[in-house]
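Before our next group meeting I need something from you. Please put the record directly below this note.
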Amino acid sequence: MVFWISDDVMKDHYCPWDSYHIEVPQRLDTIDQRMEDCDFSERVTKLPIRLCEEEEIQLVHTTRYIDDIKQTSKFSEKEFEPFSAKYEDIYVNQNTYNIARIAAAAAIDLTAKVYATGEPGFASIRPPGHHASPDAACGFCIFNNVAIAAKSVIKAGAKRVLIVDWDVHAGQGTQDCIENEENIRLVSIHRFENGKFWPNLEQSDVQTEFEKTVNVPLNTTGMTDSDYIGILSLVVVPMIQDYKPEMIIVSCGFDAAFGDPEGEMAVTPGGFGTMAQILLNMGIPTAFILEGGYFLDAVAASAEFVLRAMLKDDAPHIDFKPLNSELVPVIRRIHKHFSKQYPSFSALSKLQEIVKPDSHEDIQEFKGVRNMIIPFPTRGLYNARDESFETSLLVELDDIVNAYKKANYQTIILENNDSIELRVEDDQILLLLPYRLFSLAYSSVVLPINPTTPPSSSKIPEFDGPSKEDLIHFQSFLKDQKCNEVLKNLPIYSIYNI
């Protein structure tokens, strides 16, 4: 069973004054059409929409701010633009307040259903939410849908919630909304370019005062499926293994997709589907909440493959390449900075100490400048791309999807053993090693080889983590296998110079 929530009424939120915008109702149209083309509508369980109660919104947002947005429903046409100029990069019309309430309620209800049943779900909603802070709209976002949903499911009894934000923009609004919530964590994977990319905030780098958020700042464009899956395997999955959330909520933006004008990344639709499958394989209730994504055909195709992962359709095969070198210092800093919070990060960080004792990277992360013009500009912020260029992207996107083959990864199985060995038996790989290394081996070895593999179902005794001796043996094993055709592109080789 897969849950689905959306409604045409959310298309009544649009910019009433600018001739061109990128956050448009057609973002939902394109997903709706793909649902019909793929016959998904008969395979999902649709949930009804409703208006979010103010008390629910107040779990995250201030009364002052809610009242400020509420008044827009009574505005005249000439009042919308001056009001929007109070907040950074938003628009409102007479429908915005109630549609934002519907979007927030959809996120709440989907998350509640997913948590109660253990079955996954997708909310195709707008306006998006992850830039909205407790007291301000920002970046197309009115109410913070995922933060409201997370706090609602905590209120309903969940003990730990993890928000995975793979929208290409930093989820700074969610970061602000959850910082004082003990039972929620956020991992945000976003274009950063050392702070030179919007929202140009220091709080979006690795080392910040925000203890509940792990940022994965991307300091270059063009990141691929391999890079994002490498981030999941070396950052997100270890967080899940250590934090043990009872609910995962994905801020599911598709603006890191190939061809997106905002993200300028290169994640393919199958890449998004594989990322979804990695999370679903963790066996934790997972809800996907739509955020950004502005290359409409890529939005449709990416949503399709995320849904295919939820519906357990055959996954496409992803060809893995070496990790982008710009990620190396970032992931090292994450492991080191958060080593006290996450034992798996501590274990990974210790590999660096084994390889290169007393290593220290003194890197200035933030080099950006945040220039704000108040009142905020409301016109001419986005320009349509050349039609011939758009057509060439469509052709290339079709070629990418049409070239997909059924996933044909090698089967890799972890088995308990006193020493570490690699055996190939009957077209499957057996990795024998002490159970204390299972979690580390799953995230750093198994997932980059076969991202469709779920974690080991065998009962693992409680332990404090791998010992230094375990890590020395693991590092030595990896070093010996570096020329192995199966293992040669493991991201961990790049990260820790093994």
